[in-house]
């Protein structure tokens, strides 16, 4: 398969305004130095949305007919993998003036790593209403867990007001030691395979049935061409490692991003400083598998077809149309214009967005899709935005209007490094009836008397 290899320049709208004020014909992109995460979501238009944050530490009863429950998983520098279930009333999505509270319940807390959690991945749903959760750390290990997809039943409330909703099906399955250095990237391309990349320059493929490593792919070691600023490789060694990889939708082709991939001329051409390491941080395919995005930024993901979403240091998520590129004269790179933005100081978000994920949710308007944007800040904050498809359809390409509606915020009291989420659509286990519980208690008493 021949992929279209295009290099384009992503321009921050604020940078574009400054460049236009100075009459510059070839503005340089600085977004790579100020971005932390990105995704691709479907095309759309702009409409100013009301940003209303709600505080949510309340014990409410889950009603599957009127509540959407989202399982949020975070990893942090404190070596903790934290699970939160957000119960979102349907009225909070359909009515922007609704004052309905969004309840966050603690579902699990795993502390099996001996170093900070660097990445995590959640598998597709299995036949028994469960998903696999894999976490990678600087301690070279991959921890694997089984987590339930059934919405939790809020149980106890702690003294600090947090709602605890534990599930016995959320349990550890063990650890994998397929790598010799820090694990940098994990993904489940299918429910039966786990791909992992690490700083030992290998990509391992494991089978989820018995967690046996089926194959280990050795990435090419780059040639030594000087030492980048901040390099910590030992004397006599060269910087190596795979930072990210992307599997083609056909699962027959894979791209990887690692260290020392670009020469200095190209880095200067796209606006990177002379002290930049030149590492490829993230790579992703579009849904059709015809184009891919290779980024010199900490995170990149894909979630649709049409728009590239990139988070920034100042708490914004910018949307770029990758289907249309502005031509450039001479050797200048084509530019992607910003068509919309979400968050920022106008929405009360000023800290860096460390990671985010876009989930499809039921739409208020049947004619257009809708998404729930879950973002994590470096200060431990979680933000939930509702983004309607009508706000993105037919977007003004020359505009960068504010879109989305902030529906909830939550403080985790930890420094988040990675984020994952999915809609909890599994079935809840039936609770035993009073008569069944009485029979079980009577049986236990009889056994003790014997």
TrEMBL record:
Residues 19-38 have a biased composition (Polar residues). It holds the Pfam family WD40. SMART domains: WD40. WD repeats lie at residues 110-155. PROSITE patterns: WD_REPEATS_2 (PS50082). Keywords: WD repeat. Residues 1-61 are annotated as: Disordered. Residues 8-18 have a biased composition (Basic and acidic residues). SUPFAM superfamilies: WD40 repeat-like. This is Uncharacterized protein. It comes from Peltaster fructicola.
């Amino acid at each position: 398969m021949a992929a279209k290899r295009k290099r384009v320049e992503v321009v921050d709208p604020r940078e574009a305004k400054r460049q236009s004020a100075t009459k510059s014909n070839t503005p340089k992109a600085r977004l790579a130095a100020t971005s932390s995460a990105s995704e691709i979501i479907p095309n759309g238009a702009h409409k100013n949305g009301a940003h209303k944050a709600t505080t949510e530490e309340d014990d409410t009863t889950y009603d599957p007919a009127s509540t959407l429950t989202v399982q949020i998983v975070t990893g942090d520098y404190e070596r903790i993998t934290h699970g939160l279930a957000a119960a979102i009333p349907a009225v909070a999505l359909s009515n922007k003036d609704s004052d309905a509270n969004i309840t966050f319940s603690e579902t699990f807390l795993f502390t099996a790593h001996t170093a900070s959690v660097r990445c995590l991945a959640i598998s597709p749903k299995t036949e028994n209403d469960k998903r696999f959760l894999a976490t990678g750390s600087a301690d070279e290990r991959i921890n694997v867990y089984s987590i339930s997809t059934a919405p939790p039943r809020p149980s106890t409330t702690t003294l600090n007001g947090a709602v605890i909703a534990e599930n016995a099906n959320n349990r550890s399955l063990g650890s994998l030691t397929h790598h010799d250095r820090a694990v940098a990237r994990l993904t489940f391309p299918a429910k039966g395979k786990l791909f992992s990349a690490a700083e030992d320059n290998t990509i391992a493929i494991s089978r989820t049935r018995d967690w046996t490593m089926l194959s280990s792919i050795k990435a090419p070691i780059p040639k030594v061409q000087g030492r980048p600023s901040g390099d910590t490789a030992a004397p006599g060694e060269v910087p190596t490692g795979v930072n990210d990889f992307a599997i083609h939708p056909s699962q027959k082709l894979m791209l990887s991003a690692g260290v020392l991939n670009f020469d200095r001329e190209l880095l200067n051409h796209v606006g990177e400083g002379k002290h930049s390491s030149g590492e490829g941080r993230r790579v992703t395919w579009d849904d059709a598998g015809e184009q891919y995005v290779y980024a010199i930024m900490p995170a990149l993901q894909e979630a649709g077809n049409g728009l590239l979403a990139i988070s920034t240091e100042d708490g914004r998520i910018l949307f770029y149309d990758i289907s249309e590129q502005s031509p450039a004269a001479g050797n200048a790179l084509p530019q992607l214009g910003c068509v919309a933005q979400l968050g920022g100081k106008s929405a009360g978000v000023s800290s860096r967005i460390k990671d985010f994920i876009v989930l499809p949710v039921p739409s208020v308007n049947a004619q257009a899709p809708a998404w729930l944007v879950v973002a994590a800040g470096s200060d431990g904050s979680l933000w939930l935005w509702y983004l309607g498809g009508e706000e993105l359809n037919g977007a003004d390409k020359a505009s960068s209007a504010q879109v989305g509606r902030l529906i909830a915020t939550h403080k985790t009291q930890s420094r988040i490094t990675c984020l994952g989420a999915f809609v909890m659509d599994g079935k809840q286990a039936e609770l035993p009836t009073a008569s069944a519980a009485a029979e079980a208690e009577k049986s236990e008493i009889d056994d003790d008397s014997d």
